[in-house]
Each structure stands twice: as structure tokens, then as C-alpha cells.
Amino acid sequence: MKEKQENNAGSGGAIAAKSTVGWLLDFASPHRRGYIASVIFATLGVACGMAPYFCVARMVIALIQGVREIPFYAAWCLWAAGFWVIRYLCHGVSTTLSHKATFAVISEVRLRLTKKLTRLPMGFLLDTPSGKLKNVLVERADSIETALAHVVPEMSGNVLVSLATIIYLFALDWRMALAALITLPLGFLCYMAMMSGYEGRFMNYVAKNKQLNATAVEYINGIEVIKIFNQSAGSYDKFTRAAKEAANSAIDWMRSTQTYFSLAMSVFPAVLVGILPIGCLLYMAGSLSIETFIMAIILSLGVVGPLITTMSYSDDMGKIAAIVAEITEILEAPDLERPAGEAALLGCGIILQDVSFAYKEETVLNKVSLDIPEGSVTALVGPSGGGKSTLAKLIASLWDTNEGTITIGGTDIRNIPLRQLNDTVAYVTQDTYLFDETIRENIRMGRAGATDAQVEEAAKASGCHDFIMALENGYETRTGSGGGHLSGGEKQRISIARAMLKNAPIVILDEATAYTDPENEAVIQAAVSRLVAGRTLIVIAHRLSTVSDSDKIVVIDKGQVAAQGTHGELLEQSPLYLRMWRAHIAAKDTKDITAEVKA
Ligand SMILES: Nc1ncnc2c1ncn2[C@@H]1O[C@H](COP(=O)(O)OP(=O)(O)OP(=O)(O)O)[C@@H](O)[C@H]1O
Fold first, then answer.
1. What is the pLDDT of residues 153-177, one digit of tens each?
2. DSSP class per residue in 166-190
3. For the complex shown, is ipTM > 0.85?
4. CATH number of the domain where residue 512 is located
5. How many angstroms separate the Cα of 439 from the Cα of each of 24, 470, 473, 514, 525?
6. How many domains does the chain have?
7. Cβ 351 vs Cβ 418: under 8 Å
8. Is residue 73 a part of any domain in this protein?
9. Residue 62 falls inside a structural domain
10. Atom of ligand 1 nearest to the CA of 511
11. Residue 546 Cα, ligand 1 centroid: separation in angstroms?
């Protein structure tokens, strides 16, 4: 089953090791008709832009030849005006077509990126600042627009017409054509000098901007802490430093290319530098007719525009490789490897065998073995930092174990397709994220397609219906970014409602009642009992009294199973558990006394 990796299909893996052009073609090919039509119209447009020069040449030659018929000149003027109008019409059609196709491509790139994020190991996501990810998803994806919507049609159109004009010049008089190209080698040298090290300098500019983005996001996300701890000066300094570095990198990059770019821009299109002196010499020697001379001068003046346009896009060609590299860095990052299809699970019992894990170098879990029978309630308790949440995350498949295996229903979780595993396990944490959506939609995330009645039923069962109805807009109230408009306890209950709606056979509650007051704790405990009836439940709790009647309590200490058994057994057998229980009871008593005194 493993050979067929669902995760890479049609995304990162499919485009691995492709060149920038190959990558762009991969994304653009579904819209190739649009691009081909856009190139055709762009070429027609540029050709129509050249045609008036031809008309002018015909008129000048006729004047020299002594033609005196006004209708003759009027006709050529009309042709010239007509071509000029058609030029802009073609340009408009070409731009519309290329933008239509390009925005579809950009949206596809963003979709693939966002889908990819759901398949990446948490390690990759945590190590990447959110500002950088946002930068790639929004700004970088947008930058493809110049390459595809402008460079593809306009550059190809201008190159084609320049080539056609030069071929025509060769047909007219090969010496004039060569004279027109005399500046080409020098212009090419300037161009090569501009492009040498271009990608590196641009990448430096990109890296500094990513840093600026990451700092800006950090500054905004941490604004509460910055205010409370009066850190505004330091944090602001960090931000201004990042802003200055970003600005300097842009100036360095511009400075290093601008001289060569300006030289190339002035040398490349300087066709008259060769044509005028050589043409004069040939004309005076009698080997060049005045008609051919005039036609060569005027056409070569006409070709200057397309050449300059071509040159101006060379800069964008240099950038695109760097932009594609940034996008592919995410698309090609290795997925959490999971197979496709459906795995046959024999129930929902969980077995961990010799599981070891480290986020980085330091071992967090060391040869943990555990049996969690189907339909049982297992509590994970132990000192802070012992590895309880890490264990839960490994079962929820947010990370892969380094050693050992975790099986659900007898199947290694690495052999369970991600979608199936997500349907099987509901993981509720104390800081479950709420999207800036209505409360109804936030609960509905538990099961796409659930009816309003089902959403409300889950809300009632998790004890949040009453507080939701007390809000001005009830279920249609927006929760604010990250659930910022709600209290910690309210957010928690909504996340429990979400898990209820998901109806998964395995439920992991990671400190899910941490924010609740005693009154609500009872409501949540009742909700949790309904949520977990007949399911396999793993609950992580610091308040031991909330888990004392679990089927099994596992004490995790320093990444190992220190003891396991029922509450009664552990009180007898585990000195660590006994200490924790006594400390909990003492703290509880103090709280109760304080509450009584306050009352
Ligand atoms: N994303 C991470 N990257 C690196 N180290 C981490 C990460 N998450 C947790 N750790 C470390 O792993 C160890 C175990 O953390 P874990 O959250 O599993 O403990 P815990 O027993 O759940 O603690 P608590 O009861 O305080 O929630 C800690 O030393 C913690 O610092």
C-alpha cells in the first residue's frame, strides 16, 4: 500500500527536480490555449505597431520619387492610423487573455500550497515563521503574475516581431541588417554582466523581506505581551532593524544591476549607430539605393521599441527563478508519508511499542510502551514537561515517531491514510484555534456538511448553547481572529462541540478543561462523558481529581512510563503519583477555602 503516496500526487512530488520553465509550464499547461491566443494577439499587436513605420517609409520614398497624388498619401496615413488602433486592440485582448489564465494559475498555486501545509510534518511548519509562509502564499504567488501575464505574451511578441523585422532587413539588404545588429555583442555583454549573480542578490532581498514579514507578524501577534511588559522600544527596534535591512537589500540589489541595465538598455536598441554611417558610406559609393536606405533607417527606428520592451523583461526573468525556488521549497518538502486508499482497522484500540521521539536532538519520549484498549478511558498525568502532550500528538499523527510503532486497530498509523486517521481521532487541546468565522461555522469544521440542527445539538451537548444564545447574533456571531472575541472557557467549549460533531471513535482531550471555572467544569465533565460514551478516550489533565475514576491512569515522567494502574493502585504503588495527588488535594483545599472566604 505504501508505494502509492496519496500525499504527493499532483503536487510537490510531481514537480520535483523541474527547472523553473518546467515548473511554470506544469502549472500553465491547463491554460495553454489562453496563453497561445494571448501570444498570437501580442505578436499581432507588436506587428501592427511596426506597420506605421513601414507606411511612413513608403510615404517618404514616394515623396523622394516625386509622387504628387494626395489620395496616395491619405491612404497610407489611414493604413498607419488603422494599424495603430489595431495594435492597442490586440494588446488589450492579449493582456485580458493572459491575465485570465494567470490568475487561474496563481489560484491553483495557492491551493496547492495550502493543501500542502496540511500534509507537512508539524516540525516543518513550526520551524518556518508564519510571516514567511504568508509571504510565499500571498506576495510570492502574486509575483508570478508579471512572469506569466506579461513576460510570456509581451516578451515573446516583441522578440518575434524584432526577429521578423531583422529578417526583412536581411532580405532588403544584408549589409544594412548587419549594420543594425552592430551593437548587439556589446549589449549582450552588458546583459551578461547584469545577470551575473542576479539571483543571489535578489534572493538576499527576498530573505530580508521574509525577515521583515516574520518580524511584523511577531510584533502584531505579541502586541499584548509587548504592551504589558513595556517592551515596545525593544520590539519596535527589532522591527525597524528588519525594515532597514530590507530597504538596504533592495538598494544594493538595484545598485548592482542598474548600471549594467541602463547600459544594456541604451546599447541594445542603438541600431542607428551602425545603420547611419555605414548606410551613408554605401550610398555615397553608389551601392545602396536611397529607397533601401530610408526603409532601413525607418524600420530600424521602429524595432527600437520592441527591443527595449524585450530588455525590460529580462529583469523579471531573473526574478522568476528565485520566486519559483521559494514556492517549490514548500511544495517539494517531504510530506508526512501516508498511503492512499483505506486501511482495515480492527477496532480502535491503541498500542504503543517502544516509542521514542525527539523534536530536535533532545529525547522527549524514551521507549514508551502502552496499551490503550478500545472503549477505555486512559488518563495521562505527570510532571510538567514529561512528554504527555507529545505522546498525544504522536497518536494524532501530527509528528512521526523516531523509533517504535503506534498501532490503531492493529495497523501501524504510518499505514493509515491521513484522511482516515483524521476521521478516527479527534484531538482537542486547550488552545484549539478558532477561525475568524461565525460560531456556527467554527463548530461545523468538526464535520463538513453537518446541518444547522446537528451543529446546535453538539453545542447543547457541550454546554455552550446558552452562552451562544446570549450573544447578540447567537450562532452567527463572529469569533474574531483566533477566537479573540471569546473567553478561554468559551473557546474550549466550542472546540469540544467541534469534536462532538466530528464523532470520531478515538478522542484525545489535552488539558481540555484547563480554562473552566468549577461551575462550568461540571458542565464540561458532563459534556465530555456524553462525547466519549463508547469511545476510546485519552485525557491529559493536571487536576487529578478530574481523572481519578479513569480505567487506567498512566504516569509519564521524563519521557517514560513511570507507573500505570487505577487511581487506587497508583496511590499504593507509585510514590510520584501519591505526591502529586497530595499536592493536588492540598491546592484544591486552599482554593476551596479561598473561595469560601471570598463568598
Ligand atoms: N515543538 C517543540 N519543539 C521542541 N521541543 C518541544 C516542542 N514541544 C514540546 N517540546 C519539549 O518536549 C518536552 C515535552 O513537552 P510536552 O508538551 O509533551 O510535555 P507535557 O508533559 O505535556 O507538559 P505540560 O504538562 O506542561 O503540558 C518539553 O521539554 C518541551 O519543552
1. 888 888 888 888 888 889 999 999 9
2. HHHHHHH-HHHHHHHTTTHHHHHHH
3. yes
4. 3.40.50.300
5. 40, 13, 10, 21, 21
6. 1
7. no
8. no
9. no
10. 27
11. 22
**Alpha carbon nearest to ligand 1 atom 17, residue:** 389
Cα(191) to ligand 1 centroid in Å equals 53
Which one, of 506, 265, 289, lies nearest residue 378 by Cα?
506
Long-range (24+ apart) CB contacts under 8 A made by 165-170 are 165/50, 165/299, 165/300, 165/302, 165/303, 165/306, 166/303, 168/299, 169/296, 169/299, 169/300
| Low-confidence stretches of the chain (pLDDT beneath 70) | 1-18, 123, 127, 228-235, 318, 430, 481-484, 512-525, 527, 531, 587-599
CA 403 to ligand 1 centroid distance, Å: 18
pLDDT at 483 (0 to 100): 63
Using one digit for the tens of pLDDT, what is the confidence trace for 550-571?
A: 899 999 999 999 999 999 999 9
User: Are 336 and 119 in contact, with CB atoms under 8 Å apart?
Assistant: yes
Please give the grid coordinates belonging to residue 377: 478511558
Cell of 407: 498501532
- Residues 439 and 479 sit within 8 Å (Cβ to Cβ): yes
Dig out the grid coordinates for 559 from the structure: 519521557
Stated pTM of the model: 0.64
**What is the span of the domain harbouring residue 396?**
350-598
For residue 14, what pLDDT is reported? Answer: 39
For ligand 1, atom 28, which residue shows the shortest CA distance? Answer: 385
> Is residue 524 included in any domain, yes or no?
yes
Q: What is the amino acid identity at position 178?
A: L
Task: Name the closest-CA residue to atom 24, ligand 1.
Answer: 384
Give a yes or no: residue 144 inside a domain. no
Q: Where in 359-420 does DSSP place strands (E)?
A: 363-372, 377-381, 403-408, 411-412
**How many C-beta atoms surround the C-beta of residue 150 within 10 A?**
20
